[in-house]
Amino acid sequence: MSFGGDSANSFVMHGEKGPEDIMRIDAKKDLGIWLSPNLSFSLHLEKSAQKALAVLGMIRRTFSRITLTDVQILYGAYVRPLLEYANPVVYSGRTKDVILIERVQRAATKLVAGLKSMDYGTRPAALDLFPLEYRRLREDLILTYALSEQG
């Protein structure tokens, strides 16, 4: 492999077909999962949280009054799937990532006017929402059981 030109961003690889330019990229999205150069999924979790917070903002601006039932339906249909997509693959267990994802659920529970004054420990229970950490553990147990039953 020879380096030429802007060696910080492009490489030239010589193969059977001749020289090919290979550009260096910061992140790659494959099958809806963002992968960073250091092979961590923190970028994916950040982008998922950003998208989920944007959807929560749209919900807040769309509805003038949001009830408990509305939050349960809208959060379950539009926000939670964004946070849980490819969860068994991308979950690292890092505290930074867990706090980032839980921040979205905190914001969702604050949408109901009567629950804003409650602390976060009781708001999800009032909405019949499980903490995302519990849901993640449940998914992992179900996946482990399904894989053990196949083999």
What can you tell me about this protein's structure?
It comes from Clonorchis sinensis (Chinese liver fluke). This is Pol-related protein. The chain is built from 6 helices and 4 strands, in the order ββββαααααα. With 151 residues, it is mostly helical. It has one domain (40-150). A two-stranded antiparallel sheet has the order 1-2. The protein has a two-stranded antiparallel sheet with strand order 3-4. Helix 1 (42-62) runs antiparallel to helix 2. The radius of gyration is 21 Å and the shape is globular.
Low-confidence stretches: 1-7
List the strand order in the largest sheet: 1-2
Largest beta sheet, briefly? Answer: 2 strands, antiparallel
Class inferred from helices and paired strands: mainly alpha
Shape: globular
Mean pLDDT: 84
* Total domain modules: 1
- The counted number of beta strands is 4
Order of helices and strands: EEEEHHHHHH
Distance between the termini: 43 Å
Helix content: 40-55%
Oligomer: single chain
Percent range for β-strand residues: 5-15%
Protein name: Pol-related protein
Give the structure's gist in a few sentences.
With about 150 residues, this protein is mainly alpha-helical. It contains 6 helices and 4 strands, in the order ββββαααααα.
Topology:
Elements: E1 10-15, E2 18-23, E3 28-30, E4 33-35, H1 42-62, H2 68-84, H3 87-90, H4 95-109, H5 123-126, H6 132-150
Antiparallel strand pairs: 1-2, 3-4
Helix pairs in contact: 1-2, 1-4
Which tags fit this structure?
single chain, 151 residues, mainly alpha, two-stranded antiparallel ribbon, two-stranded antiparallel sheet, 4 strands, 53% helix, disordered N terminus
